[in-house]
Amino acid sequence: MTNADLKIRRLLISDASSLRDVSIFTGSILQIENQIRELILDSSKLAYIILEGTDIVCLATMIPTSVNPKNVRLNIVFADSLSDSVDKKTIIDMLLHKGFFDKHLHKISLVIRCDDYAFAEDAIACGMIQEAVLHDE
Predict the structure, then answer these.
(1) Which burial class, exposed, middle or buried, applies to 25 when counting CB atoms under 10 A from its CB (0-12, 13-18, 19+)?
(2) Cα 72 from Cα 108, distance rounded (Å)
(3) What does the pLDDT look like over 37-95, one tens digit per residue?
(4) Spatial distance between the Cα atoms of 97 and 79, rounded to a whole number of angstroms
(5) Using CA of residue 28, residue 34, residue 35, residue 37, what is the dihedral sign?
(6) Are 105 and 71 within 8 A, CB to CB?
(7) pLDDT per position as a tens digit, 7-40
(8) pTM
(9) 95, 77, 129, 44 alpha-carbon torsion, rounded to 10°
């Protein structure tokens, strides 16, 4: 897969049904549309979907973490039916480019589950720095 195979675009209310179909959101279409409205009507929040062709690969949100709106937490929710051919490094790179170069953000934090070693390695390969690892005891 190349960068040309993946496309990034802003989240739309009309994506509600497709997002439910790939299990990124659950609930009624009206509930999902309302959740999307909350994301896209707040100008401090950014929400994107990544597509491979016409198939939704993931939903990504960038939400401010502090009083500085240029510091955001990136959350990526992948579709249940994610193909093994999808390169998560390419997705991270696309989102970092969008945040730093298009939106002029200063800091992007990505929280990754402790047991998702492969995704953590992908993030590090894209230049992200591991700050801490929390383990349940």
Answers:
(1) buried
(2) 5
(3) 999 999 999 999 999 989 999 999 999 988 888 999 999 999 988 877 789 999 999 99
(4) 22
(5) positive
(6) yes
(7) 999 999 999 999 999 999 999 999 999 999 999 9
(8) 0.88
(9) 60
